[in-house]
Amino acid sequence: MSFQSAVKPLLQPVHVTVVLRHLGQLSLILTGLLLVPTLVAWLDGDRVLAQRLLLGALLPAVGLAACALLPRAGRQLRLNEALVITVLSFIVVAALSTWPLASGGLSMLDAWFEAASGVTTTGLSMLSDPAQCSNAYLFTRAWLQWVGGLGIVVLSMALVLGQAADQRRFADALGDDDLEVGARQHARRVVSVYVLLTAIGLAWVSAAGLAWPAAVIHTLAAVSTGGFSVAADSLAALTPRIQLALLVVAFAGALPLPLYYRAWLRGPLELLRDPELRALVAAIGITMALLWLLGGLVPGEALMQAAMAQTTTGFSTVDIAGLPAQAKLVLILSMLGGAGVGSTAGGIKLLRLLILIRLIQLMILRVQLPPHAVVSARLGGHELDARQIEHALIVILLFVLLVVGAWLAFVAAGYVPLDALFEVVSAAATVGLSTGITGIELEPGLKALLTLVMLAGRVEVLALLVLLYPRTWLRP
Prior knowledge:
Blueprint: H1 3-7, H2 16-44, H3 47-65, H4 79-101, H5 108-119, H6 135-150, H7 152-160, H8 164-174, H9 183-207, H10 214-223, H11 240-253, H12 257-266, H13 269-273, H14 275-293, H15 299-310, H16 325-337, H17 350-366, E1 378-379, E2 382-383, H18 386-412, H19 417-428, H20 444-458, H21 462-468
Antiparallel strand pairs: 1-2
């Protein structure tokens, strides 16, 4: 009997009613979030954007919120349902934002790309010159990144979970292991940390000398590690003081959000004990040194680009397309690694790479020990269980396959292999740095492919595969 035949009777497809009910609950929150850019657009005088946000985003969100009235399932939320809700959350927000963003002179396909880039906190853009758009339009893009950075999934977690078993299942989907409290309370704490970081970041950036509304837009994009800017050259025209302020805000957003709460409870030394924080600092330092020594960047520029790549924020202070090949390769490796699990950053995530490194160390160690010796992989003072290791290795493998598959499509289309790899990794890791490939001239098929890559990278591939798997929806 084959493996699939053996497990067929155990397969449990998602219930559409359950998914719609939770999406409806999410839309209640989304309605309030979409009201913010609508009011900003109206007050800024961009009536076209305000009307499109009202008619194309707010009203459909209110309509979808009616699904919250559907009857409860009377059972625990299944893991496949949680993953489907995760992906659909991002798709819904991007879809609702497409027509409003088309008011910036973009086609519907380009506006869809812009919306997906925003909500996935990527930052790749179809706008050749953002300065030509209204402040309200630029705020709307940054607000999308802020919402995406917070994680539509984190918001929905407060609604769809109530029991410990459900909490563990949905947390596994998010890669979050901070499960000491109930799901709703956990979500409230994460949201509180995120809002507080945003407020402190805005004050910090404003004090550095960046005037409003640019300070608001850049802070929203920095704390969400999104990277949308108000200028075509990103941060290049800003003073070093402002650039450094935004670097600090981006670094704060790239750390696991639950870490801040633990540090508040247990003291600041908790930060120093966190393996991901130490790994992030080390990765930025190594990337900076390589960009300085191999890429020809001055130390200040090397630090900025290293931090913006490693935190997956995507701001730039130099012309990426003009960098030497070795500098681009260094940035590719940096973007792949990403930052902390449970942060707003993308990429493979440093925790998973640390697990992989620890497994390699363990394999080397075991060949030097007697056969009866028992050793286990440990990280940060905790023993790694088989499920953690399996999840980390699968995510790494799927991420690599995603990048390779999309990269081959770009190479087949005739793009320079290194530049194509840079663009694909930037999209998959939700970074937003570009060698110039992304733009309105890009072939429609490749635009659609990059959009899919951004979405897959944001939900870590597996959730997207579950959504597309036929047996997720059909009973065998």
